[in-house]
Amino acid sequence: MRDRGQAAAIHPRLGGFLVINWTAALKVIAISAIPFLELRVGIPVGIVSGLSPGWAIAFGIVGNAVQVPLIIFVMYMLRRIAQQVPWAARWLGRIDRSAERYQATIRRYGWVGLAILIGIPIPGTGLWTGAALANLMRMPLLLTALAMTLGVAVAGVLVGAVATGALAVIDLL
Fold first, then answer.
1. DSSP state of 18
2. pTM above 0.90, yes or no
């Protein structure tokens, strides 16, 4: 493995980029792309695997955010399919009527509320939950994608901070 000096000599702007533990980086990206694990598990695994917290956060965000277009598409298709099934169409109708009652709140918080929901790194508040809510509330696709990506970035930074702090406490013991 090259040290930082050799990497910088190859290309000064790439510096430490060439000496990243790519096995750990790919592990973080893969784990961060798994629903329900997402970057909440991927970032700590990356840090424990030897990545710097900054790189672990970056790769966790990439692994999680790369799913955004796929998730939006899946939710859109599920809604279209559900509208063809009588009992599911009735269920969606009830949800749509309920969403209409909360239109003012949805307009007030909209994409910011969605980003906050996704950005809170607790179980049940990840991308899939956010995408389902955005789809049920019929939020515009572009705003949904931006809110989801922003929420992932916020969650990544928060998880990285907690993981780094927890590891520092463990090191003190």
1. G
2. no
